[in-house]
Amino acid sequence: MTVLETAEQSNPQATRGADRRPDPPLTPHLAQRIARDFTPRWNETWGGTCMLHGQPPGPNAVRLDGNDYLGLTGHPAIVAAQVAALRQDSNFVIQSGAFLQSSHPAHALELSLAHWLGKEDGFICQSGYAANTGLIQAIADAQTPVYVDALAHTSLWEGVHAARATGHPFRHNDPAHLDRALARHGPGLVIVDSVYSTTGALCPLQDMVEVVERHGAMLLVDESHSLGTHGPTGAGLCAALGLTHRVHFITASLAKAFAGRAGFFTMPAALRYYILSESFPNIFSSCLLPHEIAGLAATLQVIQGLDDARARLHAHTARLRTSLTAMGYPIHQGTEQIIALEAGPEPDTMVLRDRLEAQGVFGAVFCAPATSRNRSLVRLTLSAALTEAELAHVEEAARAVAPLVKPWDWPIARRRHGE
User: What is the SS3 assignment for 310?
Assistant: First the structure.
C-alpha cells in the first residue's frame, strides 16, 4: 500500500463527496522522491503509522510534550486581555506588518519586549521561525560567512539559506572550533541557541562572546528556550550572564514560556526601517491580530513577576535530571528543562514512546529532520505547573520502563563512555 492510499484510509472524510475526482498526477520526479526517501521509512521503519503519533493522552496523563514552561495557559489576566481586544477591535485592518505605524499597539509591545531584554528596538513576527529567517535574511548576504552551531534550530539554518549566505557549521558548544572557523573564513555572523531545543544543553555564551569579539564578528542568540525562564524577571540567558550589551541580536519564539503564537527579534533602533524594507516575513505576511498582541502584552507583565515559578521550574529540572540519571538514563548532554531520552534508531524510540505512554507519561518524539536519522529521541519538557504527584508519577514510570528499554545500552550512553 502506498503512503497516499494509507492517508485516504485514515482520513475518509477527505475523500467523500459526489463531485470528488482524482487529483492530477504528480510529476515522475516527485513520485520517485517519495518512493525513494519516504515510503520505505513509512512502511518498514514506522510500520505504516506516523512515528510522532502514539496513543491519545487520557484525562490522567502527565503531559510533557508542550512548551508552556511557566504554566501560563488559561491565565486569567491574559485571557481577560484577549477577550477585551476581541470585543473592542471591530475596526481592525488586517494588513502586512510593514504598514503598521509607530502608534500601533504592536509597536508598543515591540518596544516593551526590547527594553525588557535591554535592547533598543525589535520586531514582532508571526512565529519564531519567521523571526529567525526574516532577521538573518536582512543582515546577511552572499558575501557574509555565517557560523552556525551544529545543533542550532532549523529555522536558523533556513535564515542562512534565505540570505543566500554560506553557512559554516561548527561543533556543538565548541568555542575553540568556532575560533578556528572564523580565522579561516573571516568575520561574519555567528549563530547560537541559548538553550538547545532537542537536548536542553546550555550554551557557553561567555566564551562564545569572547571569540566573536576577538574576530570582529556579529552574534545572534536565539533565546526561545530561555526567555521567561532564565535571568532577572525572566529576561533570558544573555541578561542572566550580563552579556546583553555584547550580543548584537536576540531572537525568540513566543510559543514557549509566553505560550502564545508569535516570534520576536531585537535590533538597533537605527536599523528599523532598513529591516522593515528587507525582511520578507515582515513584508509578505499579515500582522498579528489585536487579541494576540493584547495577550502577549499581558503575558509580558505576568512573566516579569513569576520568580517563584522560575524557581519551581529549575527545582523540577534538578530533581528529575538527578533521578533519571540515577536510574541509568543517559541525559548528560543537557542541563535545563528540556530532557532528551535519546534512544537512537527510530524503531527503538517508538518502543520507548509506547512504553512511557502505557505508563501515562507523554513526551514529544523528535526524529529526522529535527534530529539525525539515528539519533531520534523522546523529549520531556518540564513546566513549573507540575505537581508533586505528577513528578512522582514520571519518576515511577521511568523506573518501570528502564528494564524494558535498557537506556544504559543506548548509543548515546556508549558514546559517553568512549565505546
Answer: helix
Rounded-to-integer distance, Cα 156 and Cα 153, Å? 6
Q: What is the distance between the terminal CA atoms of the chain, rounded to a whole angstrom? A: 40
This prediction's pTM? 0.92
Residue 222 β-bridge partners = 193, 251
Neighbours of 323 (CB within 10 A): 16
CA separation for the pair 320, 334 (Å, rounded): 12
Burial category of 394 from C-beta neighbours within 10 Å (exposed 0-12, middle 13-18, buried 19 and up): buried
Helix axes 307-326, 388-405, angle to 10 degrees: 30
Parallel, antiparallel, or unpaired: how do β-strands 145-149 and 62-63 relate?
Answer: unpaired
Residue 147: strand, helix, or coil: strand
Cα 279 to Cα 139, 180, 268, 273, 366, distances in angstroms = 9, 31, 15, 10, 30
pLDDT recorded at residue 4: 55
Cell reading at 222: 536565539
Q: What is the pLDDT of residues 379-393, one digit of tens each?
A: 999 999 999 999 999
